[in-house]
Design brief:
Distance between the termini: 109 Å
Number of helices: 8
Structural class: mainly alpha
Order of helices and strands: HHHHHHHH
Number of strands: 0
Length: 196
């Protein structure tokens, strides 16, 4: 039985599996994903974790008492998600989109390295020519684009805060405290005993 596992025993099997690929019979992964499609897939994969983190944080930060109150008035789970959790968690979801956008804008300049153009083209074209003014100009434009997009998403984050939720804090509607504070060492006197 051990004599069957000589070094050249599996050579015909290996040749049968690899020859069609070498002759172009099977699709090559690098031929399918070249150019623009590969770059778009890479940038989408780069953005997905930030968006998912923002969505998770947005839905997780919703107060459970609010969800219980929505259930108490008879809302279904989908209604709770659409009418309660998403509107209250939308600012953090927009924050995830904001982070993903900045990561993609900062990274998309690398797409010029594979010949896709964009603002990275002057950076990669100026590098071998030692044209630092081209590289600096493109870097400044990328920075300005990132700052403008960050500002727009920050503004959008403020706009999507639901009416009635002021900065995450609800103001106390009571004008005065309902109980008196007890101070250490000072006896608590009942109001009825004071007037007698």
């Amino acid at each position: 039985l051990l004599a069957q596992f000589r070094p050249g025993y599996l050579a015909p099997v290996r040749q049968a599996l690899t020859q069609p690929m070498l002759m172009g019979g099977a699709p090559r992964p690098y031929a399918i994903l070249n150019g623009t499609l590969a770059a778009v897939i890479a940038f989408v994969l780069l953005a997905v974790p930030s968006v998912l983190a923002g969505a998770y944080a947005g839905l997780e930060q919703v107060d459970r008492r609010v969800i219980d109150a929505a259930r108490a008035v008879g809302m279904t789970e989908w209604q709770i998600l659409i009418k309660v959790e998403v509107p209250l968690g939308l600012p953090l979801l927009i924050g995830g989109l904001r982070s993903a956008t900045l990561q993609v804008v900062a990274t998309v300049t690398v797409a010029a390295y594979i010949g896709l153009g964009g603002l990275g083209l002057p950076i990669f074209a100026g590098l071998p020519l030692r044209r630092f003014d081209w590289m600096l100009g493109a870097a400044i434009l990328v920075m300005l684009l990132a700052l403008v997009l960050d500002g727009l998403f920050a503004l959008l984050q403020r706009v999507v805060v639901p009416r009635g939720v002021a900065g995450g804090r609800v103001s106390d509607v009571r004008s005065s405290p309902t109980r008196r504070r007890a101070v250490m060492g000072v006896p608590i006197v009942n109001e009825k005993e004071e007037h007698v």
